[in-house]
Prior knowledge:
This protein has 499 residues and is α/β, with parallel strands linked by helices. The chain folds into 3 domains: 1-103, no CATH class; 107-221, Beta-Lactamase (2-Layer Sandwich); 230-495, P-loop containing nucleotide triphosphate hydrolases (Rossmann fold). Helix content is 29%, strand content 24%. It has helices at 33-42, 77-83, 117-130, 163-176, 237-247, 264-272, 309-316, 332-342, 357-366, 371-377, 402-408, 446-453, 458-468, 473-482, 488-495; strands at residues 48-51, 87-90, 135-141, 144-151, 154-161, 188-196, 199-210, 213-222, 252-257, 282-286, 297-300, 323-326, 347-352, 378-390, 395-398, 418-421, 432-443. The strands form 4 sheets. A 7-stranded mixed sheet has the order 11-10-12-13-9-14-17, sandwiched between helices. It has a 6-stranded antiparallel sheet with strand order 5-4-3-8-7-6, covered by helices on one side.
Amino acid sequence: xxxxxxxxxxxxxxxxxNWVPPQLEWGAKFDLAPYIYNFFxxxxxxxxxxxxxxxxxQVRLGLDAIRLGTTTPPYSRAHIRxxxxxxxxMRAPGSALRDCCIINLxxxxxxxxxxxxPEVVDQMLHQAIESKASDVHLDPERDGMNIRLRVDxxxxxxxxxxxxxxxxxVSRIKVVAQMDIAEHRFPQDGHFEFTHNERIYNIRVxxxxxxxxxxxxxxxxxxEDVIVxxxxxxxxxxxxxxxxxxxxxxxxxxxxxxxxGSGKTTLLYSILSTFNKSSRNIITLEDPVEFPMSSVxxxxxxxxxxxxxxxxxxxxxxxxxxxxxxxxIRDTDSAxxxxxxxLTGILIFSTFHTFDVPxxxxxxxxxxxxxxxxxxxLSGVISTRLVxxxxxSCAAPYILTDFEKKSLGDGADLSGEFKKGKGCAxxxxxxxxxxxxxxxxxxxxxxxxxxxxxxxPASALREFLAKKSPMNLRxxxxxKIANGITTPEEVLRVIGMSV
Length: 499
């Protein structure tokens, strides 16, 4: 047995199938280790030991402690006792017994029907944060409202509210987000702060009218998790070196591309965190400001009063900036303003909604930015996606099917042993836990600039830029598949099949 297991009194009783834990108070911690320690010692084969005493679905157990209580509602004694149905204590062959209990929050059933609108909203957000959800969706239907959580890019339904509670809950969200509760015909945006376990989360709110009522989408932003070290984003050593070279330029524009939810903002914040802020004047234009940064002047875009990206850019270039982060290039005005500013000696970072690097260059030219300006101003382009990582708790060897090999491309290096998650309580039976990035990075050189200026046709330019990328998105994905980080199924979901 591992040395970390504590010695317990031999008189500690073994748990029975009808065993019930003692009464739990708010914030209580109940240690089950003494009850099961002797049971483990008595079993020669405990690769799969199952109990049927009160704990919800499958819960991973660490012998050090099992935490059943929390410090915030709605995790009351009554809820904890209701969640406790079954537990699974498992030890994979050759592994040590470790890890604290991870409760499958998605299986927690909260009785929303008996709660007031403020309580429902609070409990819903507590549950979403505990489940590590990035978004909460409230979708109205004919007979009620569905609540779904987006965890690691996938939506999971958790509850269906009765029709009569819809309007009260939507109104409550509008009140805290400082939105017009009387307006139901037009979409609205807002935000508010929410405290969970003494940490502040920024909640971005968007409402949209549908035939059955207002749909609400809540984006949960954890201020402490926005800035991630560049080396922890999923870049391989060669890509990290290329990015370091690109951002070392004293001027020019660096664009990050990808669809919504692909990690563009996180990458930009991580890049800004690498600069010495005391010696540089850094200004950001954001909609909204997602994370307050010290020694950085952050400007909130307010479209409703006419303060858009283009107008803000015209103002901040007169503020003697060294670095400007433009949240998004949305239109021709903001694109032309950003590129003209980059030519004046300012280093500019921004995002752009395209699917790959060649598509970005072609789209900028179509927006009216002169080829010469695109060629001389662009320092580099980074295309990014997010894929789910294989759950380490249930990862197992996996053999690729012929369809998966063909889908990833005939020239892909698909040798070696691959992995796939079987599904467990830790990953909500999905086989995935957490996400990592796929990246395609192109640093602009004289050859690229010459071809853009000379008016290379769009099809030829696309092919040329694809060749200039040391590793495209698909190659980055295949590398992570070979390293046992993600699966072909997940890659096909995110970037599609090889054509």
